[in-house]
Inverse folding.
């Protein structure tokens, strides 16, 4: 049985005539008459008898309407939900979010995304950029919000939101603040650094080697950006962090870059996703919102 035929049956019973039901559902009376005949042929039972200018449902019609009322309404809901999923209004998008993006862009992005598409479900994984890009490549997440990865432009696409400058930093009360500092002065200091598995740490070590210095040995290694920032702000440890993060109110008065000439890592931050002919409608909607981000 066709769900539309059942819906027309319900309308005829509710309205009391084929003409009134046709007006109610926006179809012609002959279309509803054909629907009734299809049902009668399928069921082998008469569904209406003519009474004056109207019709009266048979016991078979009443029984059918009672048994299918919930089914018809549920199928209408399912049909609408399937259409919404295909257009991205429902669905699920999985985001991998690095610390800088989580602090600076994620709150406003989620406000706009959930406002425009309230039924879109979002899962968020927080982590280091390297870990997130590996998860993206194996399909565990749909998009990385963090440092742009241009290592494989044939496989991934990206959208740049900002340029970030990573610099060597210390607490605002550190003795090296407020004057020009040479690399030879920072080497003997105490350091808190991310693991050597992290790309930014690898750049950091390579930058020292390129200038003829052995990289500093950290007193503390941590994979947590929050711990790293608190240790910088609350001790005399040196480290290196995002310039964009240092502009946030929580860090602005606690952490500052050291005045070291020509020791800055410039990187792009934004969104990276895999280039695919099967990008989900949910991801397409998330990208459309993200690309309007300022």
């Amino acid at each position: 049985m066709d769900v539309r035929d059942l819906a027309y049956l319900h309308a005829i019973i509710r309205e009391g005539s084929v003409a009134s039901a046709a007006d109610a559902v926006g179809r012609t009376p002959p279309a509803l008459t054909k629907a009734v005949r299809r049902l009668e042929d399928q069921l082998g039972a008469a569904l209406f008898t003519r009474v004056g200018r109207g019709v009266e449902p048979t016991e078979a019609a009443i029984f059918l309407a009672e048994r299918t009322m919930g089914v018809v309404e549920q199928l209408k809901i399912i049909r609408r939900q399937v259409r919404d999923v295909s257009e991205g209004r429902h669905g699920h998008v999985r985001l991998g979010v690095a610390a800088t993006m989580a602090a600076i862009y994620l709150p406003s992005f989620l406000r706009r995304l959930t406002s425009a598409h309230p039924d879109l479900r979002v899962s968020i994984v927080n982590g280091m950029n390297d870990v997130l890009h590996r998860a993206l490549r194996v399909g565990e997440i749909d998009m990385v919000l963090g440092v742009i990865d241009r290592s494989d432009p044939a496989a991934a696409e990206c959208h740049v939101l900002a340029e970030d400058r990573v610099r060597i930093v210390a607490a605002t009360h550190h003795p090296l603040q407020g004057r020009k500092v040479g690399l030879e002065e920072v080497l003997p200091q105490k350091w808190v650094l991310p693991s050597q598995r992290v790309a930014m740490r690898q750049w950091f070590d390579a930058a020292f080697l390129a200038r003829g210095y052995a990289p500093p040995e950290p007193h503390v290694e941590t994979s947590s950006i929050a711990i790293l920032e608190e240790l910088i702000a609350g001790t005399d440890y040196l480290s290196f962090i995002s310039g964009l993060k240092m502009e946030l109110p929580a860090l602005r008065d606690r952490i500052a870059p050291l005045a070291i000439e020509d020791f800055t890592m410039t990187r792009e931050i934004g969104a990276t996703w895999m280039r695919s002919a099967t990008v989900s409608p949910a991801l397409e909607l998330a990208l459309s919102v993200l690309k309007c981000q300022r």
